[in-house]
From TrEMBL:
Pathway: Pyrimidine metabolism; UMP biosynthesis via salvage pathway; UMP from uracil: step 1/1. The gene is pyrR. The lineage of its organism: Bacteria, Pseudomonadati, Campylobacterota, Epsilonproteobacteria, Campylobacterales. It comes from Sulfurospirillum multivorans (strain DM 12446 / JCM 15788 / NBRC 109480). Residues 6-207 form the Phosphoribosyltransferase domain. This is Uracil phosphoribosyltransferase. Keywords: Allosteric enzyme, Glycosyltransferase, GTP-binding, Magnesium, Nucleotide-binding, Transferase.
Length: 210
């Protein structure tokens, strides 16, 4: 799976193990999702283009660089909202394109229900964020949707992934890089990642058992 980039870093590994722990409280869970996303985004944006700029420092003119790209962050509702703040910390002028998918509990597949993209979305590099890359169904549909809207440069950021989903996604969208902090053992009969971390949305929003 050439399009999959597993971001290995001791800080990410450490934080991920606390994130997985069922005893980790929602406020700590949210903090960790934010921190891990922040660290991962650093890698996922490593190849963004720069333009030359001159800046007057108090001492002299510096020949320096600024981003030469407009970013659109696409959180998949709702769990990815927990990752959004970290993106704004690193890329404050990113636009947000919301994508709403919900899991059909019978088929375990994603069903589209909402999208709100910025008007200039075709000019932007899209970074889709979703904490869990499970069956790949949502990811495939989200990328199909953005490609259908004319978005050309798309990348995907997920904290925890399942090999089945990554394989399926790579067969359909080999041009879209996926950045993930780890690839777990697989999916269980309910489409949950094993060992995973449970339902990310419920843990972010403290709605377990709702
Ligand atoms: N979504 C989740 O929140 N967790 C999983 O394990 C799979 C999908």
């Amino acid at each position: 799976m050439k399009n999959v980039h597993v971001i290995k870093h001791p800080l990410i590994a450490h934080k991920l193990s606390i994130l997985r722990d069922e005893k980790t409280e929602p406020f700590h869970f949210r903090l960790l999702v934010d921190e891990i996303s922040y660290l991962m985004l650093f890698e996922a944006t490593r190849d963004l283009p720069l333009r030359d700029v001159k800046v007057q420092t108090p001492v002299a003119v510096a020949n320096t660089h600024k981003l030469d790209v407009k970013i659109m962050i696409c959180p998949i509702l709702r769990a990815a909202l927990g990752m959004l703040d970290s993106v704004f910390k690193l890329i404050p002028d990113a636009s947000v394109g919301f994508l709403g998918f919900q899991r059909n509990e019978k088929t375990l597949e994603a069903e589209f229900y909402y999208a709100k993209l910025p008007a200039d979305h075709t000019e932007r590099t899209a970074i889709i964020i979703d904490p869990m890359f499970a069956t790949g169904g949502t990811a495939i549909d989200a990328v199909n949707f953005l490609k259908g809207k004319g978005v050309k440069d798309i990348r995907f950021l997920a904290l925890v992934s399942a090999p089945e989903g990554l394989k399926r996604f790579g067969e359909i969208h080999p041009d879209v890089p996926v950045f993930t902090a780890c690839v777990d053992e697989g999916l269980n009969e309910n489409g949950y990642i094993v060992p995973g971390l449970g339902d990310a949305g419920d843990r972010v929003f403290n709605t377990l058992g709702a």
